[in-house]
Structures
1.
Amino acid sequence: MILKNKPRIFLYKLNSHYSSNVYNCGKWIDGIKIRELEEKIKKFLAIKYVILTNSGTSALLAAYWVLKNEYKTLNVDPYTFPATYQPAKLLNYKMNFIRTILKNNVIFPKNGLNIITHLFGQPNALLARTEGAPFIEDACQSFGAKYKGKRVGTFGKIGCFSFYPTKSFHTNGHGGAVVTNNQDYYERLKIFIESGRLNGKMTEKIALNLRMDEIKAEFLLYELEDYERKVACQRQIAKNFKSLIAGEQPFLEEDENSYHIFSVFNMLIKKRNEFRKYMSNKGIETIIYYNDGILPAREKFKYLDLTSSIVAIPCRWNLTDREISRIKNALKGWFV
């Protein structure tokens, strides 16, 4: 049955009561909001060093730049947004594509640099199998997720975050951060991201301007105040939805060691096209996140089990009670 005259429920809905003081005062760059946000993220993540960037991609580029003399090869699962590894290709790293997602027998490479990507708000189980191998983390979708009580993005040599508007913790446009506990990495990251400057002094090092602006930082400070409550709300909604879904759903799983923030509520559905049509008729948006379009051509066949069945439904903290009820009833109608 097609529902008429009911508002459609979208996967993403951005709204905020934020009002900018920074915009009105004209202090748009290099101000106190940047420093304040960096300090608050340090505390939130329990990490020594934080540098804000103008995107998650810029954070990854900076990480690969700092490590390029130590490593020439990047071991990466390509089932991710390509920005995870494209900056490394730009810097002439050799790509070694390895499927790790939903694989229990992965041998973590000791040669080259590894990147662990925490997709959809879920801590990556590879954290338990690193065995001393060098790695960085792409935690762009998972700010606040935890493994064994520790925030993802803080386990490897360097961690990278995105604050793009589709992320659970987001700014009013593009934004990101790179974090580390290593002082040498921090200083080199700082120079590369901030036009060659360190502690206010210009160096002769190769550098770019990848900085965040004050207005974006001000918005993130506003969002951070209430972020953990929003995540708790999102987790409760996800729990309600999960109870109605039959079969194993690996992207929704948690164990005693993991804390999932459900930035994307992804399911594997065999009859995906029928399911999407069914949900659309109920006025509920679904998205294929990701299809095989994000994969290198020679890797596509390895992921058919995912790309043929994965589908996301709305699961966000600002769903109304009525919207939650409609989604629950739709899930019951499909699975029960």
2.
Amino acid sequence: MKIGIVSTGVYIPQHFQTAAEISAASGIPQEIIETKMGFSRKPLPGPEDHTCQMGIWAAQKALEKGNVDPKDIDLVIYIGEEHKEYPLWTAGIKLQEAVGAVNAWAFDVQQRCGTMVMALKIAKDMMTADPDVNTVLLAGGYRNSDFIDYTNPRTRFMYNLAAGGGAVILKKGHEQNELLASHIITDGSFSEDVAVVAGGTKNPITAEAIENRLNYLDVMDPEGMKQRLEQKSMQNFTRVIERALEKSGYGNEDLDYLAILHMKRSAHDYVLKHFGLTDDQTYYLSEYGHIGQIDQILSLELGLESGRIQPGHIVGLVSAGIGYAWDSCIIRWG
């Protein structure tokens, strides 16, 4: 039984922060931000752009585009960030109610910026195993830009963090845009390298913690992480894509389009070169920055709008999340 993508939805806030503004805040030359870091601007959340709410708006777009009745949805999976409207709150149930999926049940999943690609595998596996799960909505939002301290040089590789929402609707028996195989790698040796230090059970929020800016993202061992990550990161990026292609019955040469997260230009180009892809076979998100787990859906939509994705194309989605996780899945488009 084929499982296909019926539709997608993306929500982008209207306010953007420019490379010039980030340069002024961080002291990094604007040219470096635009060329090496690879973005000229990025969306930031407005007053009403809450995390789950951005997922709701993206889900409503997907429902409208796919002409899907919310009452036909069997399962809602929230793929947005844990940083959301309230702590200790199941956002998927709110999202279910907001879109009118009254016959569904819901839960949240999380793997940082790998969440959407991971959740596509979870959804497909559940749909394959459970005869009662035929239509699934995956949706959520992201605004981890809230945790960036531009005066902290240890986190400069995350200065591209932005905000937005994304959604995907999957349907069993849908003949178009077939979701094929996935592959995921996680490496726990990086699990405590990057975190918001204060706010959990180890380091509760206190006035002193806020004064010391421990309520922002930080890198505990930047040099050690860099050395260890350089040995594995690109290898795992290419590995998950290759294995997902292999499991889907394809080789590297069959890949027509790669929906890849936003990362520095040199790393992006390395992955393209490895698979023999050109700039016209992907979409570099230089005007969006990194919207976490929303990047792949945004790239998919931009690829379709620009004509870079055509019927019959083999499309790869690839993500990475701090912790560290690398995820890929393959879609036969059309």
3.
Amino acid sequence: MAGRKNTKEVMISNADSIKKSNELSTAKLNQGLTLNQMQLLSYAIYSTQQDGSTTFIKADFEKKFDIEQYKTQHAKEDAQRLTDIKFSIEDLENDHFEYWNVFQSIKYREGTFVFKWNDDMVPHILDLKNKYVLTDLTITASFKSGFSWTLYDYLRGMYGAWYMSLSKEALMKLFGVEKKKSYQTNTGLLKSRVLNVAIKEINEFTELDVKYEEIKQGRSIVGFKVIWSTGKGIRKASEKQLDILQSIVDAVFADALMYAGINDKTNRERAMQIVRDFQHMKHYFLRPEVGLTADKASELARKASEDLDELNDLLEAEGIEQLEVKGAVPLFNWLGDL
């Protein structure tokens, strides 16, 4: 059964995303973890999925999540907590459960983390062909609450569903606050400090739209029906796409005077119009504050390639050596693969 859809559109960066199996996303790994600990776990997955690395430096981790100062004492506390987390698969109705540690070890020395995954964990983060959840870390970096990350991960792992009914006790376990006395006795506090906080951030920063209904027995709230819909994730332009676009624009601008010197009036005016088109592209689309989609970058790259060919034809007609773009040898093959 397909999940419910909404009209939200959110930019997704594949280069900044991690993959986790559906089982891993719904395994409640984040229960009881602080936001920094969730970020550290996700960055370990990210590092491994980028190039198989099991080492990363603290400065890169801080930059990814915009953490101002991550002290050695913080690293120690978080590493100790992460070595304790377990991945579990439970089917108690069928008399089956599995538990294992996520990490075999985590080491830290002079700003560098070195970690070793448990072998049973690896299939849930590497070589995933289907039934996985893609999480963009640039989106989750916006979360200020670990509760938001916990609920976001869990709902996205429930692929094809659009609601779930949870008892109050089950909801507290999901968020890792089942031992907090104030939440046990005061459901209003649970709502205002946990559930509402998570839903507010998810609705603000992600493609999900989440709400809930209270489940009551008499006047008492005994559970919650969490309801959600999913918007559209739009791929961001990759660094490769942007680099190629910038290379073509830079090459054209570097030789603008050569186009202005074309003798044939009609060809010269056409060449200068193409240069103005490149100027428009640079001004409106290649500024740092503009986030291009992958589709738009592909469209611009094809147009830039065609315009570059035309400029070269105009130069050839004038008897001038054709323009070459530095570092663009794979350009046309790459464009053909889009």
